[in-house]
Amino acid sequence: MTAIVEANGVRKSFGDFEALRGIDFAIESGSIVGLIGPNGAGKTTTLKSMLGLCAFEGQLHVQGRDPRRERHQIMESVCFIADVGILPRWLRVDQAMDYIEGVHPNFSRSRAEELLATTSISATQRIQSLSKGMVTQLHLALVMAIDVNLLVLDEPTLGLDILYRKEFYNRLLNDYYDGDKSIIISTHQVEEIEALLTHLIFIDRGEIILDIAMDDIANRFSEVLIHPDKVEQARQLNPIYERDLLGRKGLLFEDQDPDQLAKLGEIHVPGIADLFVAKMRGVRS
Amino acid sequence: MYQLPILLKREFWEHKGIFLYFPLTISALVITLSLLAALVNVNVGGDVTIDAGDLRGRDIEWQSDSRPLQDIYLDQLQQLSRQDAREREEFVVKLLTSVSAPIRGTLWFVIFYYLLGSLYEDRKDRSVLFWKSMPVSDAMTVLSKLLAAAIVAPAIAFLFILVTQISILVIASVMSINADVSVWSTLWGPAQLYSYWPLLLAVLALQAFWSLPIYGFVMLVSCCARSVPLIWLLAVPAVIGLVEAMLMSGDRFADFFLGHLVPLSIGSDPENLRGWSDLVDISFSVNMGLGLLVGVALLFATIRLRGRSDEI
Q1: pLDDT at residue B42 in the model
Q2: Does residue B250 contact residue B240 with C-beta atoms inside 8 Å?
Q3: What pLDDT shows up at residue A232?
Q4: Residue B130 to residue A52, Cβ atoms within 8 A
Q5: N- to C-terminal Cα distance for chain B?
Q6: CATH architecture entry for A3-91+147-205
Q7: Which of B133, B224, B309 to mutate to test the interface with A (most CBs of A within 10 A)?
Q8: pLDDT of B15 strictly over 90
Q9: Tell me, what's the ipTM?
Q10: Where exactly are the structural domains of chain A?
Q11: Cβ–Cβ of A88/B307 closer than 8 Å?
Q12: Confidence at residue A39, expressed as pLDDT on a 0 to 100 scale
């Protein structure tokens, strides 16, 4: 696997506020990475730095190029969809297609028209006349018609209703992702993308607190459903998180011997949401 | 470079209002007013004298020597036809220049208004994130906006100037027939459109180079301002000018700035361009070279800063 994005000690501050405190990560080609963190954690800053959309310090390469100097070359093989429409409001749908066709070597107009035909958006509409959900549909259709290696999605479904959100991720997975492309999605709605991801990065206050392949979660983290009688015994093993369930307690362990945990109760792989809360509490306490 | 046509189109789409409809409206207005003046019989002009009589306001008399506008025009045409060739030419060129003045004058504001928003508005509405997510370099972006201001807008204005001038000449021609004046020797001949229009076009083209330092400065302000770019546009040169005047008691900056700010124009007055030789002179002047140097430097700075600027 080759890394499509490599970051080493990336820093960014806005005055006194440190948005990124020297983060390191790598994104392998073919992976779908969830960049997850609370509001203000540095998700958008990370993504914008990768795309050359804001200044930063440190080393960051996308396909071997420095986004600070080579943004426009990077953008030939990377696409970006941000939260709430960044499409210019005055632009018409057909003009948007004309424009991308004119500037992007990898855009297929017929593909874009095909994708738009499945929505209720018409070519002569101005973007300002579209609803928020439709703008996101349009942006996704335009981006899906561009053949790129990396798709960057920054809170792409923020503020959309459940129908649009489901459709968005269905499209992405069924009509776009083919195993060679990489996708990085930032969100704080963890559950929605859980099933999509191959990798997970948790970020909080400008620092990465977990960077793991989904397949490794089961090896590293276990949640044990424990009868109240055994809770004290279980606590000796340093759980990182505890939650109350019906009549039982769920204790989350990191790097604990599974045989030992099996004696305490029923073991299963924790969900991302619980893992997220557990790691966040660890950082914040 | 293959991207340039679509980038210019994109500028045109966004600014169709000020690039196309605005000069179109002005042109239509000038033509309509001329038509009205030619067709409608109104009394205008003349001196109105009021004899106030006594202070209680009684016995007020007033008289006017106003006459129908049409008559004035017909008189003028007849007078013109009797003048010598040089006077006729001067009059007609003045007429053509004056009917094109509203478009030329507003073109100036159009270009300023456009350039001042060109690298600011997209940061304000966050669409800069979309534009920058396309494989278009910052240099191409800045270049396309400069060319839209320096070439697209003047080219469209030029077309409307042609339309307006031809329309005025046609209207005057119809009146000439009524006045029993030779249309060719009074109007179309002296207009010398075959030399007037190329000269006008050349002046508009030269303007793009002459104004480069101003355009560069406006774009730099548009790229850097985080709010109200107009304030910066006015404040920066004012402060530089004041500092120079106070510390060095000089006015070189003010001379340079104002010299490049005021649009070039054709005419017989000394401050205007009178013909091709003046155009050549100004093209190879020191002032032009200095302006180009400053302009290019400002544009390079704009390109660099555009790379770092994000939404506000």
Answers
A1: 59
A2: no
A3: 85
A4: no
A5: 29
A6: 3-Layer(aba) Sandwich (3.40)
A7: B133
A8: yes
A9: 0.90
A10: 3-91+147-205, 216-284
A11: no
A12: 84
